[in-house]
Amino acid sequence: MERTLYSLSEHFDEIDLVYEKAEKNKTTFDIYLDIEKSALAEAENNCDMFICDGATVTEEKFSSLSDEIKSLMIYELSKRGLYGFSPSMEAPEIRVTLTEYSPIVLGCTMFSILNSIEKLDGTYNEIFPKASLVIEAPFGGKKGLVKLEMMVMLLYPWLSVREESINLIATTAKKLSQTSIGK
């Protein structure tokens, strides 16, 4: 399988560096491409929440969209799954808080988290040579996080990963509101 998304929007400004790191190891790259595939599938499955050029995006229209619009959809969906990304400057810890919608958009959310970690790589680990990534997930929302944990440990060996539950219950019901994107 090869990389599908190329002309990523400015919202994923560091994602090409993540791709470059992942390409150095076949197993890592395969996991990363699986995350990309999941993110694209989630964008397609939730395309009806997007309005582009004045019309709701349909599954038929999805395949004809540019990579930039698809990456914008992935970014918008990641905002539904990611409540917070907070690196501490006082302790060697980065907290990632997922929302109750994270199971619906987990691939998109992982894309965003990896982009955010890449922004810190080289600076944060200068301050804290060893740090923890704490993933706060809703009850029932930890399924699929193993891919993210593996990617983090393979690409960012200075980070250890642990999960914590937060007082939310994950949902798989599609309750996402419409968003206008593109022109």
What does this structure look like?
By secondary structure, the chain is of the alpha/beta class. It has one domain (10-181). The protein is built from seven helices and seven strands; from the N terminus they run H-H-E-E-H-H-E-E-H-H-E-H-E-E. It has helices at residues 15-23, 26-45, 59-62, 67-81, 106-120, 124-127, 145-155; strands at 50-52, 55-56, 82-87, 93-98, 131-139, 159-169, 179-181. The protein has a four-stranded mixed β-sheet. A three-stranded mixed β-sheet has the order 2-1-7, with helices on one face. Helix 2 packs across helix 7 (145-155). The chain is globular. The model has no long low-confidence stretch (mean pLDDT 88).
Search tags:
single chain, 4-stranded mixed beta sheet, 7 strands, alpha/beta, 3-stranded mixed beta sheet, 183 residues
Say how many strands there are.
7
**Biggest sheet: strand arrangement:** 3-4-5-6
Ranges where pLDDT stays below 50 over 5 or more residues in a row are none
The count of domains is 1
Whole-angstrom Rg: 16 Å
Please indicate the percent range of residues in DSSP E strands (runs of 2 or more). Answer: 15-25%
Please trace the helix and strand order, writing H or E for each element: HHEEHHEEHHEHEE
Protein structure class = alpha/beta
| C-alpha end-to-end distance | 31 Å
What is the general shape? Answer: globular
The overall average pLDDT, rounded, is 88
Q: What composes the largest sheet?
A: 4 strands, mixed
- What is the helix tally? 7
Helix residue percentage: 40-55%
